[in-house]
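Board notes (copied after class):
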Amino acid sequence: MHAPHELDVSVVSPEEAEYGIAEFWAGDRLFGLTRLEDGELVLRIEPRSDGGAVVVGAHSLAQALAHAKQLLESS
């Protein structure tokens, strides 16, 4: 079993924040990103290029989503 990754969240620019785009990074790999779809913020999880799984703890994911929401609302 893999150890769960911690997620880092970033909003690259005010323009991307306008579209609800926040990037979620697991180490040096892009894990996923948020965006607005029909007025709702959704999370798109990116598949690994080698087909393997990225294991993320539920607590870490919840914290990252809350942080993304905070970053997007303050941009």
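Comment from the instructor: Residues 29 and 37 are 24 Å apart (CA to CA). The first helix runs from residue 14 to 18.
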